[in-house]
Automatic annotation (TrEMBL):
This is Kynureninase. It catalyses: 3-hydroxy-L-kynurenine + H2O = 3-hydroxyanthranilate + L-alanine + H(+); L-kynurenine + H2O = anthranilate + L-alanine + H(+). The lineage of its organism: Bacteria, Pseudomonadati, Planctomycetota, Planctomycetia, Planctomycetia incertae sedis. Belongs to the kynureninase family. It comes from Saltatorellus ferox. One of its GO terms (molecular function) is pyridoxal phosphate binding.
Length: 397
């Protein structure tokens, strides 16, 4: 499972923040450089055309990359496309789902990433049709699914605690009540096996810069179930989602299937970087990855709890109930994380008091876990977090 040699990681660093930004694959710089030299540099605008016309196939990249990501999330071939940002894809999926129901309630939970809730609030205001957003505790979601709810909008893995929703169970319950489901896989894709087809998801979205190592600003992806692909109405009817973009017709005609969810011009340079990372992910067995992740996180929890009595586990204790991250709570969590980073263990902080650590078995092993536990124990035991320099807040926590 371990592929440490496939990633560029600084010497002396234990990187437990791949759930926020994945590290650089070693072949990405050359793949991007080759794209710049041999495609953009040599082909100029011809790079948009397919290889049969001496191009680089830039226009087809979003769907090709979509299929490669689709394998990781259990999607049917041809039903995932890549491009734009995750916020845009959340907007598209939610708007399409709302257009398919007369009900006015969007149900979500307090563990959802705030940006998803912001998008929902903005969309409701734009539509002006009396929609409301019902936000409940994660444990209460199932009981809140009723005949008033039109769309269930959830992030499968809680960004703060790593709590894992039962996608299949909640989707089945929602469908029994006539509710459509939009799943955010930002902390799932590349972290654990996902099967949107078997779960019956209506829509799913996610990013590629976390576990999938596409790089900062890497494009997002969207999945539309085959039963909706020909009828879903893209609220953002962009040029690239048109059935025939270069016919330059006066009015919009949606493209075929999930292709209609394309909006802006594909980010070709960033997609080249994503291609390099997908060369790694194409070879990964997700079941094996999940088992390795559980071994690492269980070892980490046991080690921290044995040496850091001041830290309180914020993640579910049972491994089947969490993703590939472990979170602890401490009143001085921000300063403590900064002290850990200064000692070579990189995690991150989420307000108000969460110290968050992500685990990717492709470059983290048991020795890393033990070394990280030793550092955290020293930070907490010697109260290194009391150093004033660790209290200075950066723009990104």
């Amino acid at each position: 499972m371990l592929r440490r040699g496939s990633f560029s990681l600084p010497e002396g660093v234990i990187y437990l923040d791949g759930n926020s930004l994945g590290p650089l694959p070693i072949h990405t710089p050359e793949r991007v450089a080759r794209m710049l030299r041999e495609e953009w540099g040599a082909m100029l605008i011809g790079g948009w055309n397919g290889v049969t016309r001496n191009g680089a196939g830039w226009m087809e990249q979003p769907m090709k990359l979509g299929d490669r990501i689709g394998r990781l999330i259990g999607a049917e071939p041809g039903h995932v496309t890549v491009g734009d940002t995750l916020s845009i894809k959340v907007f598209q999926a939610l708007a399409s789902a709302l257009a398919m129901t007369d009900r006015k309630v969007i149900l979500s939970d307090s563990g959802n990433f705030p940006s998803d809730l912001y998008i929902a609030e903005g969309l409701m205001g734009t539509l002006g049709q009396g929609h409301s957003l019902r936000v409940v505790e994660p444990e209460a979601v199932a009981d809140e699914i009723d005949g008033e709810v039109g769309v269930l909008l959830l992030t499968e893995v809680d960004y703060r605690t790593g709590r894992l929703h039962d996608m299949a169970g909640l989707t089945a319950r929602a469908h029994q009540a006539g509710v459509l489901c939009v799943w955010d896989l930002a902390h799932s894709a590349g972290a654990l096996p996902v099967d949107v087809r078997r779960a019956g998801a209506d829509f799913a979205v996610g990013c590629t810069y976390k576990y999938l190592n596409g790089g900062p600003g890497a494009p997002a992806f969207i999945y539309v179930a085959p039963r909706h692909a020909g009828s879903a109405r893209p609220a953002l009817s962009g040029w690239l989602g048109h059935d025939a973009p270069f016919a330059f017709e006066r009015s919009y005609r949606p493209g075929d299937g999930v292709a209609r969810m394309r909006v802006g011009t594909p980010p070709v340079i960033q997609m080249a970087a994503l291609e390099a990372s997908m060369d790694i992910w194409d070879t990964v067995d997700l079941q094996e990855l999940r088992l390795a992740s559980i071994r690492l996180t269980e070892r980490f929890i046991a080690g921290v709890e044995a040496t850091c009595p001041d830290l309180e586990l914020a993640s579910p204790r049972h491994p089947a109930a969490r993703g590939s991250q472990v979170s602890f709570q401490h009143p001085e969590g921000y300063a403590a994380i900064q002290a850990c980073i200064a000692q070579g263990v990189i995690g991150d902080f989420r307000a108000p008091d969460i110290m968050r650590f992500g685990f990717t078995p492709l470059y983290i092993d048991e020795d890393d876990v033990d070394a990280a536990v030793a550092v955290i124990a020293r930070v907490m035991g010697e109260r290194l977090w009391e150093d004033p320099r660790y209290r200075e807040r950066g723009a990104v926590t």
